[in-house]
Amino acid sequence: MVAIDEPAPPATAADAPGHVVIDDVWESFKIYTERATGIRDRLFARRKNVSEEFWALKGVSLEITPGETVGLIGENGSGKSTLLKCVAGIYQPTQGSISVHGRTASMLELGAGFHGDLTGRENAYLNGSILGFSKTYVDSVFDEIVEFAGRQVAEAIDRPVRTYSSGMYLRLGFAVSVHLQPDVLIIDEVLAVGDARFVKKCYDRIHELKRRGVTIVLVSHDLETVASLCDRAVYLERGTVVQDGPAVEVVDHYRADVTADMPGVVGKWEGGAVYGTGAVKLTDLALDTPPEVPVATGDVLRVRCTAEVHEAVTDPVFGIIVRSNDGTYLYDTNTLWRRQGTGDLHLGDRLAVEIPLRLHLLPGRYVITLAVSRSDGKQIYDWHTDALAFDVVGEFVANGIVDLDGTIDVTRLPSG
Amino acid sequence: MAAPTTDPPAPQPNAAPRRHPVRELLGARELIANLTGRELKVRYKRSALGFAWTLLNPLLMMAVFTALFSTLFSGQELSKGWYAIYFLTGYLPFAFFQASSTVATGSVVGNAGLVTKVYFPRAVLPLSVVTSQLVHFVMGLVVLLVVTPFLGFTWWWYLPTLLLAIVLLTCFTAGISMLLAALNTYFRDIAEFTTVAFLLWFYATPVIYPLATPPIPAPVVTVIKLNPMTMFVGLFRSALYDNAWPGWPTLLGATVSAVVTLVVGWKVFIRLSAQFAKEV
Q1: What proportion of chain A, given as a percentage, has pLDDT over 90?
Q2: pTM higher than the cut 0.80
Q3: Which of A156, A238, B124, B151 fits B3 for a cystine, CB–CB 3.0-4.6 Å?
């Protein structure tokens, strides 16, 4: 197994376990407007079988080296799941080729192939062999699987899985998938299962596999997952690669594209990537209170920055996004939505931007993103992700994020 | 998202799969064994008599057919009498063939959840149906082997014929099973069609009647003789019932039809299997 920080020498890289080469892959689907599945329909009434060819992938090429963790991102219909299924071998490319070296385990559905009448133990072995692992191998990790799946599953391991709760079922399915040690692990949106504690356990396990040098290819709508877990991300749109590079950059690019035409889809991003065309630049980003000084629920916090104009523009959009420390999207506003003109700006102009925020927030840490973009919001001039952070403090009276200023009035009803 | 197609390439025959399909299948022996185990366990897990049904089922069939036909085909048509044994030596192979093919027909479509979510050599689906039915079949044969010597059947010299017959019939059954399983993913009518087809096939095979029975018209006899199942049943009968060596035409016919069917079934299955995940 090749460690992450020791890339295999190029001479052996091409067929090292965990090496994936996707070469100009095209994948088509037939979309039936009138589906004919009967023999009679197919043979004698062909023209009723109206189908359109839909190309889900249009010439995708990628090379994934052993130990890389790659996230595929893009909107629904961008082809990311299709590409994942091609790598998993479930679809064969209509044209082009994919070679995957080493053992592959796909987690496209947890507990795929579980049979309700078989016991947890029987299903674990069966699932292992469906994923391509021998009984001897499953024997060697069986105890770990059961332990990982938790006490509830351990107690029920010799009962038919139809008696399991859906949580237990998923836990067992996940435990089996992550304990078989493949060279390539393929994951599709399956990390969001179970309670928070189990989800954390899952992430820890995936990080561990990553450390051991397993190549991981995953699809997720959760950009936070992609940015934190992946080294590299591939942004797909309508079956072609828009951008392929370091996860953090690609996620930011994708996020910028998405927020441009559909505000409201963001996630956590740790760091502080700054990007944009630079036509207008934001400098001196600051809070009216130093970041380390906490503020209280209900206070007004002023966010300030200076905008420097490097190219003549009209009505640039200034915006702010507030997120909680765990990435929850709380507040997003900008001058476009507020129907607020910002005027004709010329080279060399400087503007002071001030955004007062009333903090209807419960104690916790919050993070601010500031940005300026073109008048239609579709081109980013300057974007400062998570540029500022502040802490809200106060007496603990409520849990959550938003202070709805609730009171709980309890009065005694007349007896009888 | 209905993206307009920009320059769709001319669709070509599929890119080569990662490994040669035969080698891939051989690598999945353990999976076939486990799926066979699943079939066997699941089938009887919730029935009171459990595995006993494997034997009970053919015995009940034997009782029914013996009651109906033993007087009709008595004495002179059967070389050795014992209509019940004559029936079983034909019925067990045919039941194995029919049950395997019928269940295997739905094996790919019925495992859609698996086919669309996990990659494994698809052929294990119909093949594990065949192997699990083979287990039932062999158990039935064992009972027959134990009982028949008491009735004067001396099969032991003809064990090689029996083993060859099992191998050839399994190949033939595997071929038909893969063919039907693959076609059924494209034409769901196959499942309906096979029910009737196998009924016809059953009567076109000398299971309940001896081929020499006078009322059968000559052209029909020709059809029956060309039926591969007649040849397989012939092999089993020569070993177990007639206790004699089979004729060369039967042996040759059975071998050729077994090999050809296996190869055709396999080729069709492999060719169509590339699209299974999209069709199920």
Answers
A1: 11
A2: no
A3: A238
